[in-house]
Inverse folding.
């Protein structure tokens, strides 16, 4: 393979780099049209360079053509004179003659193969890109490294200087192209921009930690990420919940946890009260099959193949596999007492496994027997309360009743259907069964004589799941295609002597067409007061009496905002799913979910200066305070805006709260009492999108859809300065720590730096390709952090590094 080819500046030579470990210099021998075949150019091999140990990936001439730089698999960059390069003298070696002394400069320091090299326009510097994810700048004269540029998340494949030598363009295996400003490289200065690219969708918020060492970003991809502010490297990603297709859910017998299985090849365990994920196990197969033992010790799941996987039900630690099935596991069920496990697969095979606790060592499961009778996929199974019988449902249009002691099917008591049986449930006393079938009918059966007691015909698409209430008085019927859950009153049907159609007794319980969601299954919670629904990526717990959701066990919707606690130990995220979450910043695990108070999207979250409370702003026209330790709402609701509250923030001393709203106003509140302070700040013509206090708390800056930002006196509410210059809505604003500058971000894809006392625009930052969604200063004021809907966050130099705290002007910054 030939990895690279490059002309010399005068066009008379070519250098090529190859997999064979050579760099070959080719010399032009003919003028245009003078080649033996009339070729426009003719080149012959002149020299070859063999200094690398392994493949040579890149080769470039210096601007004056006197040197060539090559990079290779051996992690080296070699600079050599193309006129002095010579091939290996094989004959001389055979005669015992020593090789000529190497005549090249070796640049060492890369931790991976070098994929790209390039000279600066003046030839004094060399740029390299490596599989160690870095770009490096080298001094050609001395061979020393000047600066390492880090930010790519994978191998750097291409790196080049701009014609003026002040910019570097790089491309890498992380699917990103990055532009770097290296003005001042000769003094080894900080880069103009560090790009944080890793989110899969728009970055809606980015903030520095209070010590400036870390950055937290929030994204529409449902996650938040913590980054090293100096290197741009990710530290932790905050995400929980299934990526797609939640298809199964089981309550733990202890009533404290819930397990969900999904088509994303994972099973996840949730704290029922906190609403947060406590464990994730993978791989568990695409069907999402799972079961939990009665003693809360064992979690059984499917796998990517025909095996059953066993896990610690608390920690998710793997405990082994059970082999013997020939196709993917489609149903699992523990018997009462927890000593027996039943499994069914996609081919209709059923196997029983018994816990062997009397043998030396740890308890394990052993094959007990196979139940033979079904001819198609097992879609459900339930043990009777005494554990003596097992009822199984299948795609072969039947439900079978099995004697566990003998392993025999009672052929006289088959529950026969006209189509595929899609789901099965048993009453608490084990006397009744509920089934759904692809013929659109849900049926109530008496198991003792396999008799249908009552039926409900779906009015639209067939029911696909069924669930008894704990008291047996009602049932839930789910139609995924129609996006509805119906409640079936069973009190009159259960004692019936003949089959009856009770369509009129099935009440529309939840309509997800109106709720703008998905529903694939619904079941009663063990307490009988709640209903669990599965749909999309989520499991959601509903209050049975109010029919309102209480907790969603899922990843966030779009994460609109994220904040770091003052001590750096916690991360808070606010979401468009109406909830906020508090996370452990070290482990990446959600500690508690703040849910049930806001009734619309949460647009911002912020910790109080003392770290005890969290402030949220919502589309429900309110802002709220939450206790960080308990996750419960605390204090008064900040209510007074007549439209969406788009942002809320604490004053530096924590005594006041600033809110901004789509009602075109900003308001100040007393944190302790919730009372408004003074009159609303009125002056913007359209919705106010953002607002911040100055570090001393004496001024406020707001940004609006009217394309302007306004600086206000925080005591009197008087308008001081208007910052005009953006060509679209101002989406985010911030004061520098010393209060002398302000930064604004806009839907015009730029951020602007301003003199906060004169309204003069100092600097425009045009690096994003889509709307700028947040701006902030680093704690020392030297950098500005921006985030954008283009999926990146960028750190910008906001002060001139050459002269301490001297402000940047248009003439000395780009």
């Amino acid at each position: 393979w030939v990895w690279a080819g490059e002309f010399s500046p005068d066009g008379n030579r070519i250098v090529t780099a190859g997999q064979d470990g050579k760099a070959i210099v080719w010399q032009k021998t003919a003028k245009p049209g003078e080649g033996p075949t009339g070729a426009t150019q003719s080149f012959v091999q002149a020299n070859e360079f063999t200094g690398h140990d392994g493949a040579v990936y890149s080769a470039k001439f210096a601007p004056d053509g006197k040197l060539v730089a090559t990079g290779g698999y051996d992690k080296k960059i070699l600079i050599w004179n193309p006129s002095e390069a010579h091939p290996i003298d094989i004959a001389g070696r055979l005669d015992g003659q020593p090789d000529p002394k190497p005549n090249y400069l070796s640049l060492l320091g890369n931790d991976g193969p070098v994929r790209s090299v390039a000279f600066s326009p003046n030839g004094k510097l060399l740029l390299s890109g490596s599989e160690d994810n870095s770009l490096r700048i080298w001094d050609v004269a001395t061979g020393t490294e000047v600066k390492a540029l880090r930010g790519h998340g994978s191998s750097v494949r291409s790196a080049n200087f701009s014609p003026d030598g002040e910019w570097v363009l790089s491309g890498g295996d992380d699917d990103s192209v990055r532009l770097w400003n290296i003005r001042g490289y000769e003094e080894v200065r900080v880069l103009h921009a560090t790009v944080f690219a890793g989110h899969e969708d728009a970055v809606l918020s980015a903030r520095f930690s209070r010590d400036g060492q870390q950055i937290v970003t929030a994204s529409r991809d449902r996650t938040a990420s913590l980054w090293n502010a100096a290197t741009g490297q990710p530290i932790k990603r905050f995400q929980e919940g299934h990526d797609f297709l939640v298809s199964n859910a089981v309550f733990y017998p202890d009533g404290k946890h819930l397990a969900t299985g999904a088509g994303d090849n994972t099973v996840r365990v949730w704290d029922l009260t906190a609403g947060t994920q406590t464990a994730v196990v993978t791989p568990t197969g695409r069907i999402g099959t799972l079961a939990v033992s009665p003693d809360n010790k064992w979690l059984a799941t499917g796998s990517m193949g025909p095996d059953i996987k066993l896990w610690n039900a608390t920690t998710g630690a793997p405990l082994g596999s059970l082999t013997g099935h020939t196709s993917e596991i489609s149903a699992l069920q523990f018997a009462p007492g927890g000593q027996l496990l039943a499994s069914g697969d996609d081919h209709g095979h059923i196997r029983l496994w018994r816990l062997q606790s009397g043998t030396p060592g740890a308890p394990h499961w052993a094959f007990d027997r196979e139940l033979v009778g079904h001819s198609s996929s097992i879609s459900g199974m339930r043990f009777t309360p005494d554990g003596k019988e097992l009822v199984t449902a299948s795609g072969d249009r039947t439900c079978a009743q099995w004697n566990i002691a003998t392993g025999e099917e009672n052929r006289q008591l088959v529950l026969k259907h006209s189509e595929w049986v899609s789901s099965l449930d048993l009453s608490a006393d084990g006397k009744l069964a509920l089934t759904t079938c692809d013929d659109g009918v849900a049926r109530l059966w008496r198991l003792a004589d396999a008799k249908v007691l009552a039926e409900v015909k779906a009015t639209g698409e067939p029911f696909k799941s069924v669930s008894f209430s704990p008291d047996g008085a009602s049932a839930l019927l789910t139609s995924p295609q129609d996006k509805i859950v119906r409640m079936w009153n069973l009190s009159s049907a259960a004692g019936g002597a003949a089959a009856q159609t009770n369509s009129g007794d099935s009440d529309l319980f939840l309509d997800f067409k109106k709720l703008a969601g998905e529903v694939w299954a619904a079941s009663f919670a063990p307490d009988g007061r709640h209903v669990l629904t599965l749909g999309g990526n989520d499991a959601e717990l509903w209050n049975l009496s109010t029919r309102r959701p209480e907790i969603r066990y899922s990843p966030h919707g779009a994460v609109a905002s994220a904040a770091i606690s003052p001590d750096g130990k916690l991360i808070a995220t606010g979401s468009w799913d109406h909830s906020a979450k508090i996370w452990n910043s070290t482990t990446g695990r959600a500690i508690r979910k703040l849910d049930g108070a806001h009734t619309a999207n949460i647009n911002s979250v912020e910790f109080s200066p003392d770290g005890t409370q969290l402030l949220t702003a919502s589309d429900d026209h309110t802002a709220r305070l939450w206790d960080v330790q308990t996750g419960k709402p605390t204090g008064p609701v900040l209510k007074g805006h007549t439209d969406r509250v788009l942002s809320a923030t604490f004053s530096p001393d924590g005594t006041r709260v600033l809110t901004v709203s789509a009602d075109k106003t900003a308001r100040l509140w007393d944190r302790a009492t919730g009372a408004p302070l003074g009159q609303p700040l009125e002056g913007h013509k359209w919705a106010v999108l953002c607002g911040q206090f100055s570090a001393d708390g004496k001024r406020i800056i707001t940004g609006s859809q009217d394309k302007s930002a306004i600086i206000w006196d925080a005591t009197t509410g008087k308008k001081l300065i208007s910052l005009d210059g953006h060509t679209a809505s101002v989406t985010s604003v911030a004061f520098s720590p010393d209060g002398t500058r302000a930064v604004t971000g806009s839907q015009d894809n730029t951020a602007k730096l301003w003199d906060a006392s004169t309204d003069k625009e100092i600097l425009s930052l045009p690096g994003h390709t889509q709307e700028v969604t947040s701006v902030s200063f680093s704690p020392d004021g030297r950098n500005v952090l921006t985030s954008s809907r283009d999926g990146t966050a960028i750190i910008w130099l906001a002060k001139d590094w050459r002269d301490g705290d001297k402000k940047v002007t248009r003439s000395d910054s780009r």
Notes: Helices lie at 90-94. The two ends are 41 Å apart (CA to CA). DSSP finds one helix and 71 strands in the chain.
